[in-house]
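Data follows
____________
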Amino acid sequence: MATSLSSMQPPACDDFRLKEHECVSASGGQLSMLFAALYIIAAGAGGIKANVSGFGSDQFDNSDPKEERAMVFFFNRFYFCISLGSLFAVTVLVYLQDNVGRGWGYGISAATMVAAMVILLAGTTRYRFRRPQGSPLTVLLRVMWRARRKRGLAYPEHVQELHGYEAATAPHTDRLR
């Protein structure tokens, strides 16, 4: 909206005005609109990045080998599509915004988001919803409490006495002590 409405944009600054330092800066309302848009984008991106992979993994049963393979397939395609979308955003959309108009670039992005929401809502009846068990805050506090209690413990003399040593997939090393 801020890029499509001329009232939300400061006047264009050509080369002559730029050399003479006569460019008009953005007004308070224009800056407010810009910062509000940036904060909305940040809140939306922060919300989806933290939740989409967890919601995707909830759709599969880890105890079933067939579904476990399907989950690997899903995440391979998911991250490939995320990367492809990023590539599209920094090439095609930037080209459209620079050469056709900013409204087109943002319009395509908005239409894509609406299509994604329609697809998401259309599949709502088929999704698996796992109820959260316990509070993440209590788990975090428990970890911090135990780490605080154990901070003064001495290292064991033998590596074999470390908890989980047998299950380690990488060999133990003293390089990071």
